[in-house]
Design a protein that fits this description.
single chain, alpha/beta, 10-stranded mixed β-sheet, 13 helices
Length: 318
């Protein structure tokens, strides 16, 4: 029997993103594969704790109960071998997660298998896999941070929050800000207010999520999409007009003008927050599940020296 995922949101989640496997990973890193194998066999019947992506995965799968057709599929993608991955499968059963597909690659990269499973979003703890996925431009990908302590997800709504530049949109405007400062960035966005921003690595994903909302209907869908960005007026107008041209409806937008994102995210309590800058994520990840979107390897931002970034930042702050 052959299935197609053309109209389905497909999330690929690594076992370390879904479950707390940090102690197990330290055994692998500090000892060897055989020590890791022995430990997993010995702990095979011990259920794993919840990882950073657990609440998001659980919430997205709940959307299937609101429709006669499948809306969301989740694929567990792990570098474990099948036998060491048995503990992961048992934990999936324990938590009654509606996940039936998995890929255990025996230590090989997950990236080549993303297209085979039609993955729209990869959540992983492995930087190399996230980078390759972003570079191929086949799917969105993010590097999951450690889970926040005492986070309690909203049970009535599914909240997903995005940064704007270099996440939803390309990093072209971000590059101007980093190299020429805030004033030049604001002028560029004002001059190009009616010019649609180019797609960023999560543009396709936000369109898929918006289509899910349309399928479910605004009055029934618990899915809430939010933008949390350092942009402010007048640069915020281009964001709103671009989303309108994309046919994407977001429920909330927070234009912070350089203020810390942490207080807004603490109030919003998203199931996941996507941003490109570690400086924002280090504080946000203490409050809400957070993940870093890598720049593409051919991005001009990758080639910038730290000196250039510091000089541009000093200019914008003066």
């Amino acid at each position: 029997m052959t299935f197609a995922f053309d109209e389905v949101l497909v999330v690929g989640v690594s076992s370390r993103a879904l479950f707390d496997l940090e102690h197990e990973d330290s055994i692998y890193q500090q000892q060897d594969v055989e020590a890791y194998r022995r430990y997993q066999f010995a702990q095979e019947d011990k259920i794993l704790g919840k990882g950073t992506a657990f609440h998001l995965v659980e919430a997205l799968l709940s959307l299937n109960a609101l429709s006669e057709e499948r809306l969301v599929e989740v694929v567990v993608m792990s570098k474990n071998s099948p036998d060491t991955g048995l503990r992961v499968l048992k934990s999936i059963q324990h938590y009654q997660l509606d996940i039936t597909r998995s890929a255990f690659t025996g230590g090989e990269s997950l990236a080549p298998f993303l297209q085979a499973y039609s993955v729209d979003l990869l959540l992983t703890r492995h930087p190399d896999d996230a980078q390759v996925a972003i570079d191929t431009q086949d799917c969105a990908a993010a590097l999951i941070y450690d889970p926040p302590e005492s986070f309690q997800p909203d049970r009535d709504q599914i909240r997903i929050a995005f940064d704007a530049d270099a996440v939803l949109f390309s990093d072209d405007s971000e590059y101007i800000y980093k190299t020429e400062g805030l004033e030049r960035f604001q002028q560029n966005e004002s001059d190009n207010e009616d010019v649609v921003l180019p797609d960023g690595p999560f543009a396709k994903l936000v369109r898929v999520l918006s289509r899910l909302n349309q399928k479910l209907g605004a009055d029934r869908s618990p899915l809430r999409l939010s933008i949390v960005t350092a942009r402010n007026g007048p640069a915020h107008l281009r964001v709103i007009k671009t989303l309108r041209q994309w046919g994407v409806n977001v429920d909330q937008a927070f234009f912070l003008g350089g203020l810390s994102k942490e207080p807004v995210l603490s109030a919003l309590r998203p199931h996941i927050f996507f941003d490109d800058q570690p400086a924002h994520l280090l504080s946000a990840s203490k409050r809400v599940p957070s993940s870093q979107v890598p720049y593409r390897s051919n991005s001009r931002i990758q080639s910038l020296s730290q000196t250039a970034l510091i000089e541009a930042q000093d200019e914008s702050d003066s």
